[in-house]
């Protein structure tokens, strides 16, 4: 397929997913209106927070599904939308845990409701807690309804149970990863590289890659071997993707990523980069700066220089390449048709293309 | 039935519910262990927080189910356990929203994890946020799994969909009630009596009474009229129960309820009592005391005296009686067999017996 075909496929899939999500939010909004305008407004805020992303998880479901020969795009879009809604729930709650009030350059749920409160003259700490309280409620709604999108897919019986099991497992492991992330942030000794990889695999790769790919494969009626191969691919490409994400958070091109490269450094985010750096004598020169909320651009450059000089950047890049290559290997056996490799080659290439 | 029979029925039902919940937590704990000891420990904390309650919601499911002739107690216990798990999720998150660290005299999820952090030398604000973060995760797990207990009930097809719909609606309205509760706590003007009743009906009565009763009736194959009658009963008895709860929170016998009667006054809890009192000239004498975290026992007595003198207590008691009587009326038509009235008479009597 040439690039033009890829875009067409992607657009067609995307439209299915958008339709499913639009119908879900429209229904929910209608139901909520009967319980009062402020509740309807909360649903609108939730919908806004569920929009604007890359719809990454539905893309994974549909890629696995179509490349294994599935043709009921509406059913696949429902399963994809279920993962998207789970993602929305998890990031809304993750933002509460991280005390973040902004996402993608605009206020998130916490931020929107904090701002309404401050505008009404409520003092900031109370307004922030109000924003976080509403975000807990909003995340609960997204979480509780993600199952139901699978129910609406028209899939029944054992197949539905298997899809529920996969969604269940995705959420179950993500909660473990979130717990370990919270643990890292308060414990004295810094996490090791292996601990970071394990945490990121649990917290993000499971529900973003492994789960959606397995669900798409199961829905397509893939063989046990094909399902296993795509799950393995998902786990490894998910870890690679996460490491690349952490690299871009520090070394990325702000113009291309749309994110400041000071955010992660100011937050003191625990990544593979940090796990590699700590313990190195040269890191001690900048470790006091790391995690400072008022870090300047110049101080950020100093940290970056150290991370380059002691090889942390190179280490993380090699690790990401490693996981991306392992992911690709999962796809090259006889268990999968060539269509699957065709489908996922661009994704592996994109991950590899983002590391030097 | 004499009292002895009632206790025997109640014990038998209770045992079924406990078995279902024990099996669910045992499975989850086993799954969690594979992802690490701290995650398994979180599941133990969640199980502890799901225990020790009155299992009120499963009781409602089973009472509706058996009084309408249902005989598969195991299926009913699964549905009851689903509501119990939903309840656990909602109170764990409600405690985060209310910044409570204690429930039933012991640390709740937030409290347990806050205490672990302070013991490790973490400063209190960070430790509190850590406790609340873990409680968000724990509540998410309980919430996400409540659906699945219905899946495990062995009920399939349309019936399962209807049970899911009822659980879905219960959670949907509870979220609206929680939102309005948060809104009340920050807005300038105090809520009216009607607003309080509406909020309590949404936040608590729906998922504690109306939903469980409807689910039990649907599972028993009750007629549409029987299901509607039990839903109406549930809504009204739920509101009555909530008003009584608010009365006991201020005027109760601490020895009997196990709760301090200063808690609600110190919290400044918005109840029917308060909605009636505000605006009355005599309330102005004590309104500054209301909501003070350091309220003394003597100051509490002063507030109580005013609430009695201006008739707020009497008003709330009459309102509770009113709703309890309306609830009973929903059961007296021809749509329901006499067994249903027999089953629920003691509950109505208990509510009425708690108001003068």
UniProtKB/TrEMBL annotation, chains A, B:
What family does this chain come from, according to its entry? Belongs to the FPP/GGPP synthase family.
Q: State the needed cofactors, names only.
A: Mg(2+)
Under Gene Ontology molecular function, one entry of this record is: metal ion binding
The protein here is known as: Polyprenyl synthetase family protein
Pfam families per record: polyprenyl_synt (PF00348)
User: Per its UniProt record, what InterPro entries does this chain match?
Assistant: Isoprenoid_synthase_dom_sf, Polyprenyl_synt, Polyprenyl_synt_CS
Which PROSITE patterns is this protein grouped with?
POLYPRENYL_SYNTHASE_1, POLYPRENYL_SYNTHASE_2
Question: Keywords on this record?
Answer: Magnesium, Metal-binding, Transferase
A Gene Ontology biological process in which this protein takes part is: isoprenoid biosynthetic process
Provide the coiled-coil residue spans.
none
In terms of PANTHER family, this protein maps to: GERANYLGERANYL PYROPHOSPHATE SYNTHASE, SHORT CHAIN ISOPRENYL DIPHOSPHATE SYNTHASE
């Amino acid at each position: 397929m040439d690039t033009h075909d890829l875009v067409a496929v992607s657009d067609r899939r995307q439209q299915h997913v958008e339709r499913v999500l639009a119908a879900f939010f429209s229904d929910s909004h209608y139901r909520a209106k009967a319980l009062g305008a402020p509740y309807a407004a909360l649903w609108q805020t939730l919908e806004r927070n569920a929009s604007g992303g890359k719809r990454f998880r539905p893309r994974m479901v549909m890629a696995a599904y179509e490349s294994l020969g599935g043709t009921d795009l509406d059913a696949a879009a429902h399963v994809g939308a279920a993962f998207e809604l789970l993602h929305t729930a998890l990031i809304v709650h993750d933002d509460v845990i991280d005390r973040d009030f902004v996402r993608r350059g605009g206020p998130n749920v916490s931020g929107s409701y904090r701002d309404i409160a401050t505008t009404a003259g409520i003092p900031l700490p109370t307004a922030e807690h109000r924003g976080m309280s509403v975000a807990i409620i909003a995340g609960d709604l997204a979480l509780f309804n993600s199952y139901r999108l699978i129910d609406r897919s028209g899939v029944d019986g054992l197949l539905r149970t298997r899809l529920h099991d996969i969604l269940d497992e995705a959420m179950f492991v993500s909660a473990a990863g979130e717990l370990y992330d919270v643990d890292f942030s308060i414990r004295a000794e810094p996490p090791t590289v292996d601990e970071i990889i394990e945490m990121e695999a649990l917290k993000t790769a499971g529900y973003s890659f492994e789960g959606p790919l397995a669900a798409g494969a199961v829905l397509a009626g893939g063989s046990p071997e094909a399902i296993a191969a795509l799950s393995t691919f998902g786990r490894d490409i998910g870890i690679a993707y996460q490491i690349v994400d952490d690299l871009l958070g520090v070394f990325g091109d702000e113009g291309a990523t749309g994110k400041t490269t000071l955010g992660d450094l100011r937050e003191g985010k625990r990544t593979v980069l940090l796990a590699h750096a700590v313990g190195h004598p040269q890191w001690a020169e900048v470790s006091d700066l790391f995690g400072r909320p008022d870090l300047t651009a110049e101080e950020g450059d100093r940290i970056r220089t150290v991370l380059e000089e002691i090889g942390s950047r190179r280490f993380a890049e090699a690790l990401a390449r490693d996981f991306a290559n392992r992911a690709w290997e999962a796809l090259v056996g006889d268990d999968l048709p060539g269509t699957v490799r065709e489908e996922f080659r661009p994704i592996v290439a994109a991950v590899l293309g983002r590391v030097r």
